[in-house]
Amino acid sequence: MSRFKVAEMPAAPGMAIMVEGERNPSLYSVLSGWGFRYKILEDGRRQILNYVLPGDLIGLQGNVMKEMQHSVEALTKMTLCIFERDKLPTLFRDQPTLAFDITWIAAREESMLDEHLLSIGRRNAQERAAYLLAFLDARAQATVGGHQEHRQLPLTQQHVADTLGLSLVHTNKTLRKLAEQGLVRWLDRGCEVVEIEGLYRLAGWRPPNETGRPFI
Amino acid sequence: MSRFKVAEMPAAPGMAIMVEGERNPSLYSVLSGWGFRYKILEDGRRQILNYVLPGDLIGLQGNVMKEMQHSVEALTKMTLCIFERDKLPTLFRDQPTLAFDITWIAAREESMLDEHLLSIGRRNAQERAAYLLAFLDARAQATVGGHQEHRQLPLTQQHVADTLGLSLVHTNKTLRKLAEQGLVRWLDRGCEVVEIEGLYRLAGWRPPNETGRPFI
DNA sequence: CGGAAACTTGAGTTACGTCAACTACCGTGG
DNA sequence: CCACGGTAGTTGACGTAACTCAAGTTTCCG
């Protein structure tokens, strides 16, 4: 893989890593930190599509489609690994195993989007919030491997609202209820998961166990 | 590609092509007809994730993940092309161009799911309905190539409701309003698009122009 | 220490959901 | 031929989850 690596790049919180409409952007993989993908309607309504964590690819779509259909922003301090664009066909020719890993990652992304769609389409506010926090906690645990003591998610309530498709006010009231039930604790700009099992139960969801996961 | 083709298979409307939880299902490509992917919650709430049309792959996820995370059902009469499972690694080794096409299709699916997520999360009922019908019309036009006179979509209002994350009753009232505006006409289990530009305008959306699209 | 960003809270509004009919349109079988 | 049962679509009355507006408080950061 190192043959395709160009450089590493840091990104500060709030930084735009990729913007909708961009043509042929670089291809990145996330080495550390959190980011999120989103789209906005003309009048400013924003929908967060998914979060990117270490091991995820950013910009694959732009290398395959004509232009990027979504934007990506850093949530925390991140470090990215930049790959040479235009080298994707070469990679597919010379590194079939890596190519398969890329497809694996794309299929997993699709699977996550399916879950989110189910959540936003058919779950109510509490279930949605519980699902999102459980989902992010599971991803965070999976990336560090093993279990963390402080299960903290680096989001603001505005991010949660824009992910769940709810208003900020209603999101706040919903999160408050989860906190009253002792499932989470809301910190300054972040959320600490206290009772993961309670979240699973409320959401009616459990994380899939990922086997054979590649890390690019 | 024919080296990996096993057989063709017809599917009748309503037939379950693939069910959630299935392990290592076959990999299909759609030769003709319409189907849809969906997930259901334990209490029966259903969310349609996307529609599958000619040229789409079915079951890639199951060949990459441990088991299928969603179900697929035929909407119309379909013909499917069955590929030999377990041959995916071989294909990636021997047919890099085909492998790239598969990734291309996966990336496009992801792009469509992004759009749906934006729609369900941030658009109101009318905008959502307009978007969905415009989206499906665009896909239908793209698969036949050129322009059809009768732009008919083979759905029931229940399908529309389960795609938009709305109740059946509210979906009906919303579609009625679109019909009153002369944008669509609702037939017996199907919808005819009358004023595609009006739908685009209402949805605030236009179909992307797909270049270099592979057909497997 | 001042200003901005994040979080809270209450009051009033609305879009969408639920319930409960009813009509229309089949295809099937008596 | 008509009775029928099932699916799809339609409509009105009413309930409620979530939205908007508006005003706070708290926390962070320069």
- Principal-axis shape of chain A equals globular
Total count of domains of chain A:
2
Q: And the CATH topology of the largest domain in chain A? A: Jelly Rolls
Helical coverage of chain A, percent range: 40-55%
Chart the SSEs and their pairings:
Two copies of one chain form a homodimer.
Chain A: E1 5-11, E2 16-18, E3 27-32, E4 35-40, E5 46-52, E6 57-58, H1 60-64, E7 71-74, E8 78-83, H2 88-94, H3 96-122, H4 125-144, E9 152-153, H5 157-164, H6 168-180, E10 184-187, E11 190-193, H7 196-203
Antiparallel strand pairs in A: 1-8, 2-7, 3-6, 3-8, 4-5, 4-7, 9-11, 10-11
Helix pairs in contact in A: 4-6, 4-7, 5-6
The structure holds a DNA duplex (30 and 30 nucleotides).
Q: Can you walk through the features of this model?
A:
Two copies of one chain form a homodimer. The first copy, chain A, contains seven helices and eleven strands. A four-stranded antiparallel β-sheet of chain A has the order 1-8-3-6. Chain A has a four-stranded antiparallel β-sheet with strand order 2-7-4-5. Chain A has a three-stranded antiparallel β-sheet with strand order 9-11-10. The model of chain A has no long low-confidence stretch (mean pLDDT 93). At the A-B interface, β5, α1, α2, α3 and α5 of A face β5, α1, α2 and α3 of B. The structure holds a DNA duplex (30 and 30 nucleotides).
Q: TL;DR?
A:
2 copies of one chain form a homodimer. The first copy, chain A, contains 7 helices and 11 strands.
